[in-house]
Write a structure and sequence with these properties.
Length: about 80
């Protein structure tokens, strides 16, 4: 259980931070009249969404790896 806590906690924390950034950037895109700012804002939103997706995929892979391994990776060092 303790092996799974850290990856889940860190992923949730970073995803929440990304969601906060998304809400702020989305609000600025909505109120902005500058087309250049809107274009860069949309690019940043897309990048943040891809980072969140990558974090979730990485978490699923890590949890699967933890489930399959018999001993902790750190004990090898």
């Amino acid at each position: 259980m303790s092996k799974k806590f850290a990856p889940i906690f860190i992923t949730v924390l970073i995803c929440l931070f990304g969601i906060l950034q998304l809400t702020g950037i989305s609000y600025l895109i909505i109120i902005s009249d500058n087309i250049l700012f809107r274009v860069f804002g949309v690019i940043f939103v897309i990048v943040i969404i891809w980072v969140i997706i990558a974090l979730i995929v990485n978490l699923v892979r890590r949890l699967k790896e933890i489930k399959e391994e018999k001993e902790d990776d750190l004990s090898k060092y």
